[in-house]
């Protein structure tokens, strides 16, 4: 019977050998390889995503009363620029999702430190994570920090910053200066690390990082830096679609990943975006497109019931595109040059773009300069970059300048609501849930 | 115990007392004869107190008193008496009542053979209940068989002390044994079948194969199961043969009829009122954006009618006539008529068992066939069992084998549609009617001539047209070896292989609306108007395969030593478990079953949808694959010492380890232990109380554990391939944020109990008190959004549960008519002692019987509310309190609420519950009925939801008694209908104290009535025994605290009454 007693001993030895180390689930993994980290970056539904709040606030569309009533209360409040839009129960996904991007980027950056830097994938992954983190903080900045002339109100605006991947019940709040320096450093480093080109447009490249830099510096009215970044993009890539060759007969004229797209990203899909009546183009905006402007028919569709809806997303669908394009870079460079007094150079960029946007009757613009030229460029910027959420940061930036101030108006149930050029609502309050914790 | 409940508890005690007093009222019946005698130890001729004297044919028994004496009243004639005592060989003897002299039964000691009665099984050992220190509930064969059910778990409901079925909670947390001891970890008790854990679906266990069930409740009982025992352990023992037993055959059959469900049970507003509401919404323009929506939003028939009137397609009078017609229709009537029926459940079983000197066997088989309450749906199950035991090598080696096979099949041919409240299924001639489907009826009509498949939804034509079969095969094979190395030392090893293969096949043809809708939606129109089909016209075939298997190996040494007046029992060993499963699902289009062919489709292209070309969708890819691997390795040991037939000591220890993901091996384990002591007071020489000849005190303390394998200390990610841009492209997301402090849950249990039995066994039972200290409970905590998530899982709380279990067995009459009762009363109070996580105040209002929102000092499951200030007499607005003043500023009321300012009503789960089961036997007749009660808890009832109404959804019947005119506030508490949507007002009302009700109730659970013919009473009867019985279940409420017309435990659908008849024959 001695043999029988050996069995337990034998099995104990077996037990030590990896029996407790096996992975409990097939789809589970730790983010401890380059492949895993790349897969986290490729989670486009989380990472290549921008909030829809700027769209709701930006005044590019109007809704009928029924459409407003169908919105959750906090979205109604935002649509009407009310000062305290959020209740403590409201789950503001756009807010959470930006921090989700930050958390993912932080996890990737942390795990990357444990992997060999000699591997060529190391810098590409670090660059991409920094790009996404900068992008997330920039979107938060554009909604919750700063605004036209808000300094005078002494609001002490601040938002949480995430410096570690550990879950925390108390957030560290920092000012806009600190967030700006994080964004600046992240995108600067990303430029140095990212490869010139990537396999898919949803993965950021060096060009994309420059383009993001250009967008951010423009929003901060740092025009010299914006000009430099836009130069860097256009020096390496400046493909434009010729709208004369785009077929207006299909439902969505533009293809996903078309050649103007430097980096692909989408806006959060709120249900009003799919409604004809709740998402009509603002009549004033529509009236700004001249009859020979191809964007009039490629960007918009007139329904049989007379409603006019946007259809020009570079996503090739109802989903709104928010990524970076060469056209945006040309407009940034043109504006910066014009502000710098380089009228003729600015006009080259503007005409380059517009010849691709108007039909063949288009006559290049000449002999404009100064504020008139700037106005012209800003007008084209507004018509080109529609329904991408960029209008909101343009309003915040331009309302500081008396020449470009805009007062926005919307009506609901016969009542008129207004957002003054330097209204308080240009900086949203932090969703109260963030601050409501019992402990 | 909860103070509010004391009157109720007192009442129940009073009832019990009456029963106890009742015993002295009973009169000697003339045809009964008293048999008296004494039980002695054969060697020493010392009396044996506490020995059991059983007359098996009459199921009558008694226990000997301190001097070993007993008396039993028996009908005149010959009876077989079985005398047994733990540690002694049972004695069987036929006695005749004509001999009036006192009998002397001498029992021989039987080394290491435990008595046949009152033995509890821990799954490791059989322990005589007398020598156990732990807390057990035993359900014997008779009690297992009392109820008629397909599922084994039903057999323990309402007959096990301290065990409650969480009726309002459902699937994830079906049973609580002595309260909940985890927050969000695994809530399922461990199920052990024939000594080894069973991971398969319990539906595969045929209750007719079960011999007994033991429920392990405290640390001493369960800690041998270690980290899996945190939620209690249910040990199921299946029937087996015994050595030297003549062959026995038994067959049984029963049929249960279940009432059709009552669709009118949940209070619903008048349909006419709802039609009016839709009219108001229509007039306010609510539907305007949907009417022309590109998504072809479906609108109700009422709205379509109003639209026709507005567009001039109908006159106002025609419109009104139609609306009146809708007001008088009710879809629930049609659903009841066409879809629901009485369910019929049939059960057949047979069993053969027997044994020789060195071999015994038990073979059994069963067939269950359950025709569902939904027309055309069916479940059936076949089970086959074979258990065999051999003794070899001069009885030193025992080999046991068990083979268990089960095949269950679930056939679904009909699914019940969701209808608008007034939609009918058929016209007066019985022709199928169209109902609103996924798209508006106007749009559907416009496509009639487009060459598409019929886009109308006619549910009645689809009855019986589904083709879904789920077949599950379950197999367990057991091999056990036990070898007696030297007397007293035994080596045992057990191995079990279990596998379950469940295959699901669903073939959906275009006869189903769902399929036609999908094919039509993906139909592409060419420039010339020609149609192509991205999803081919044909059947959709969905198949899934789930395969699980486990290996279990346990090896241990058992040691028994009797020395002087003491007896040692020890056990030590180890256990390994490897559980794996994998699951694969796939979907095919354009399938032709008769040819076995399917058509490939293009998953990459985003196809414009036919009804809304602006919407581009990929063809849904139906392939998913998953797999899990759980490994456990445990070491365990226990020992007990029984001294002078009076004193008991026990101790156990166990260490469990598992392949928890992302944890260092040395952190994967947790050591758990228990100690216990017992004192059979009545065996002390100074104990003289003759009325209570058996009293035992016992006390235990120890730890059980629980593990949540879904959480990890490290960051973990999961892969998926439903990529945003490139179908099938692999990406990952973070499934678990880092948590370096993750620990196993640990539950410290203290148990103090007294067991007692009165002279002649008239009254017996036990009273137990316990505390459960649960530490490091794993739970979700809310976190600020800036963490990138809303919730996070970790060890955040500790709770303490204090409770008692009282079991009282009494025999009120013990004559020709025997009346016995079992009373079970259990109570507990749990309290969160520590909560380091965080919650938003708003969430406390979401706390209910299934949703834990921990708050220090309060029960885990609690009901909170905002204080109610009545209705505003001017406008019927609900009133709350803000800074102590009545207020309608709902958002301020809600946002300024703090955990301190909100009202705490009480526990959301019963804190006192129990049952009173009466059994009456007369000659061959047996009647048993069970009355159950639950008390000390609250629930939040539903009421009219004006927010839902404003979205065009029907709501609660309270709408009919809402405030409408000043003065109504005196008779109603239902707020007026607001003129404009006001979600904060609605949310205040739903959270207010006026909707909180007490859940206390008494229920008439069931009745069983049977008659047994036996050879013993009639020698010419062809069978040994034959029982015919009827069983009625879910008989209804006797009393409830709330005035609301709902059953507190079943707010949505009340359990249907069932009636069963059955037959059992033993040959």
UniProtKB/TrEMBL annotation, chain A:
Residues 19-218 form the SusD-like N-terminal domain. It is found in: Cell outer membrane. Its main location: membrane. The keyword RNA-binding does not apply. It comes from Algoriphagus lacus. The keyword Repressor does not apply. Residues 324-404 form the RagB/SusD domain. Keywords: Cell outer membrane, Membrane, Signal. GO terms for cellular component: cell outer membrane. Belongs to the SusD family. This is RagB/SusD family nutrient uptake outer membrane protein.
From TrEMBL, chain B:
SUPFAM superfamilies: Carboxypeptidase regulatory domain-like, Porins. It comes from the Bacteria. Its main location: membrane. Residues 129-233 form the TonB-dependent receptor plug domain. InterPro entries: Beta-barrel_TonB_sf (IPR036942), CarboxyPept-like_regulatory (IPR008969), Plug_dom (IPR012910), Plug_dom_sf (IPR037066), TonB-dep_OMP_SusC/RagA (IPR023996), TonB-dep_OMP_SusC/RagA_CS (IPR023997), TonB-dep_rcpt-like (IPR039426). It holds the Pfam family CarbopepD_reg_2. NCBIfam families: OMP_RagA_SusC (TIGR04056), SusC_RagA_signa (TIGR04057). Belongs to the TonB-dependent receptor family. This is SusC/RagA family TonB-linked outer membrane protein. It comes from Algoriphagus lacus. The lineage of its organism: Bacteria, Pseudomonadati, Bacteroidota, Cytophagia, Cytophagales.
